[in-house]
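#lab-general

N.A. 3:47 PM
ok so I finally got the sequence cleaned up, no stray characters, all 131 residues accounted for. can someone with queue access submit it? mine expired

B.Y. 3:52 PM
send it over

N.A. 3:53 PM
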Amino acid sequence: MDIQTHQRIDQALCGRPIVVEDDFCQVELTTTTEMAVDASGLVHGGFIFGLADHAAMVAVNHPNVVLGAAEVKFLKPVRAGETVVAHARIENKEGRKHSAIVQVDRGDEAVFKGTFTCFVLDQPVLAPNVA
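B.Y. 4:20 PM
back already:
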């Protein structure tokens, strides 16, 4: 299936889609030392959130999808050098509103869970208004 959204995203920072199906995707990210916040190698949660957000957007897979809200839980820390995979599934669609359930796993261990509320717009969110 072709990916129709977020085509210019930096996959080194937000993950690389490895499975893309209708209303589902998996996105893989190998974390780096540049993502670490301290000498122990703790990866900043923003990179894990970015991975999960990217997965939600690809699960919707529309060129004009944007994030409206997210309710998330960080369950375990991630260390630089570890590979994590986000699994996103569209749970509900109501018109333009899509609800994605996302879980990020390190192997068989969940490190993050969240619900992402996504909206499909008629045009890109930054498109100029036409009067």
